[in-house]
Amino acid sequence: MKDAVVTKVNWANPHVLVLFDVTDNSGNIAHWVVEAGSPSAIGGQGWNNTTIQPGDKLTAYLFQVKSGKTVGRMGRLVLANGKSFGTVELGGDRPVDCSAESINGGNEAAACRPDGRKTSNKE
């Protein structure tokens, strides 16, 4: 999303939230919330609690929630000055590798089960 305008940054555990507005070609405004990592995790990428401020313009690359709501997980945020945060390039859905051993038995592994059920890590 290009030309997003930051409305608020919530710099707190467990995840930093960046709220911004995006205006479409018809003039409709969508209010978005993108979730980044924890302050300590993204601090290692050069962020701090004043890096992104309300009023800043940015381009947001994110993984939108499946429900279609204007919420997502951050892939990358690019400020108007070109400074970039995050390292994920959004290239579409990642194929599931059912021949690989699942480390935690999470949702991805469910796609490889005949009945498609999801499990906890305790199973």
How does this model look, in words?
Helices cover 7% and strands 33% of the residues. With 123 residues, it is mostly beta strands. The protein has two domains: 87 residues, Beta Barrel (OB fold (Dihydrolipoamide Acetyltransferase, E2P)); 31 residues, no CATH class. It has a five-stranded mixed β-barrel with strand order 1-2-3-5-4. A hairpin with a 6-residue loop joins strand 1 and strand 2. It is globular. About 4% of the residues have low confidence.
Number of strands: 6
Task: Count structural domains.
Answer: 2
CATH architectural label of the largest domain: Beta Barrel
Shape summary: globular
Largest sheet: 5 strands, mixed, barrel
Which structural category do the helix and sheet elements fall into? mainly beta
**What is the CATH C level class of the largest domain, in words?**
Mainly Beta
Element-by-element helix/strand order: EEEHEEEH
- Portion of residues within helices: under 10%
The CATH topology annotation of the largest domain reads as OB fold (Dihydrolipoamide Acetyltransferase, E2P)
Q: Order of strands across the biggest sheet? A: 1-2-3-5-4
Q: Kindly report the average pLDDT value.
A: 80
Low-pLDDT segments: 90-94
The value of Rg in angstroms is: 17 Å
User: In percent terms, what proportion of residues is strand?
Assistant: 25-35%
Span between N and C termini? Answer: 39 Å
